[in-house]
Amino acid sequence: MLNAFHSPQSVALIGATSEIGQSILKALPHDNLETCFVVARDPKRASNSLKKILPSRTKLVEINFQAEQTQSHKEIIDQLFAEDDLDIAVIAAGVLGNNPDLDEASNALDVMVINYVASAHLMLLIAEKMKLQGHGQIEVISSFAQTRPRVDNFVYGSSKAGLDFMARGLSDKLKGTGVSICILRPGFVRTRMTRLMPEAPFTVNSDLVGKLAVKLLKSGESVGYAPPILKWVALVFKLLPSSIFGKISNR
Length: 251
What we know:
With 251 residues, the protein is of the alpha/beta class.
């Protein structure tokens, strides 16, 4: 359980090879951290990275996660709660949809299954377990891209919009249960996944996103942006006429 300093005993990182997810774990207080569940397609690689971030005394429990195998999701979540309570779950699984080995439609399906279907399903399963234990926090990594469709990333944006919508609705449903959900909407973040892409305005490093994510967890707020100025950019984007927004977003 979280102590007075918001230091967890146990955390789960879903999509544990995510640099943003790992940066969140890096920024969390470690003094009380006993167990970290490493949930990933390649949990061994994720663990090797997390060993450089977390204290040596923290037990890393590796769990293989294949997003498209939805029938395995319940078993994965059962493992997170098998021995003790889970304090924080970070849902950071995601792909951009730029796999060169796949055609456009296959890339789109990959994005929708991983970013929305699998992530939302796991969020629902985790929330049900946390309700039974009477406490817990779920942090969902959404995206600024969910603000409004753009020609160059509407598939990715739509997948994050669906997850964001689901998280906001579930957050309202969980009020009074001791379980809370917060949603982080990062803009362009410098990671391995984006290294070949041109940077957008307000680009940040993953370490800053991790710090802002932890700040959001402690704040009690339900939605945050990384960097925070994107909250106001999103408001402007929503108000722009389609003709003007199209010209800006296609540059």
